Structure prediction request, 469 residues.
Amino acid sequence: MHYYSLGKNSPNVDFRTAAITGQAPDKGLYFPSTIPKFTAAQIERFKTLDKASLAFEVMKPYVGGTIDDASLKEICTETINFDFPLVPITENILSLELFHGPTLAFKDVGARFMSRCLGYFSKEKKANDRNSNLTKSTEDNTTTTKPTTVLVATSGDTGGAVANGFLGVEGVNVIILYPKGKVSPIQELQLTTCGQNITALEVEGSFDDCQAIVKEAFMDETLNQQYNLTSANSINVARWLPQQLYYFFAWQQWVKQYQDEAGNYPIMHIVVPSGNFGNICAGMMAKASGLPLGHFVAACNANDVVTRYLATEKYEIHKALATVSNAMDVGNPSNFVRILEILENNFPDLTKVLSSYSIDDTTTKATIARVYKTNNYTLDPHGAVAFAAAEIYLSNLEKDNTGSNAQFNHSAIILETAHPVKFPEVVEEAIGQTVALPDSVKFLLDKKKVSTALAANYAAFKNWMIAAS
Ligand SMILES: *Cc1c(COP(=O)(O)O)cnc(C)c1O
Prediction:
């Protein structure tokens, strides 16, 4: 297994290099040379495999021998040491709850997997450097193992997952930039209370300002050289690919619940609240490797580049619009090129497997209120966008079915990507109740925020970076 750049202008690399560098030198995204194909017998066996073993089997081909089996098994076991329950909301919509990880965000899985891979590679490099220094003459003896610096801008959710995932990982420092006053209180505590190798910069500006600083840092050759900069967003294959696991875990539970004696079960359609399209693209990879999944629906907020593309075949990026589902406020989804690659850029094929709906803020809030009242289920704003899109998709299927005597029996799952307590303003207004903090994060309330204030410009960041090291 190797990885090629979708920019088509960089050398092929192995998983290790793709994970360490994040992006190819030509700024293209890395894509695996082959999508592993599981046999029917393997898929059958997957039905009853424990989570860690399944994760190991799914990830092993992608890692392509750059991590030994025992270490990969350990990485997988640690990455997914929490639950991914599939919970019914209505008769035909179920919620795959991806918020039971340490920071209550689905990004925990990708961040935990990636951080452990980088930790493994850093240890391995240290050992290699030590060995080569023993055999080299003394004048060569200058090799030092530079730590990797993960630089990440966050609107709230990514930062916490990355901070928590990378905490204590040797050989890796993490710098998180977040917009002052624009993340929720619990999110801020998740970002700013880790200590150790995690530093939080509180930027006097917007999320876009944070992102602009990070982008400029990656373009700054001297800074890159000096600090081994890498990103921890879904561009990185080590964060993107393990997201496939959600779909395997969902399918396991679906089969267990719905399989009849003959081994048949209804199709599971999947609705994914999408921003950068890393998560949904990972699901489409799982399907391409043989997992029997149904139709994919990309649920978007007002940032509807893909929704419009599927309707018009015109891909028009725009500046990100602010919405109540702010983790999906993305005007130019970086992973969409990977979806096109899976489908070999065949537009008619793409529209057969993927639909997309854009849900406005009014509908999102009304959906949270309605589902709470009718079904006694508390959606977060991102899950609510997915729920509303699922309803549209299923009712369109039903319409298509009228006239035939086929009985309507389609069901869908939505991916609940964050716990509602992370978006208290929107959710509490919609349901007229406070949302209780889960026990697993109550300890944060006793912690003290530690952050460094930073002006919203690149020069301020660079000065801080140089002074801090
Ligand atoms: C990041 C995020 C998303 C969007 O995921 P993509 O992989 O970028 O499409 C959706 N919901 C929440 C809560 C998120 O944090």
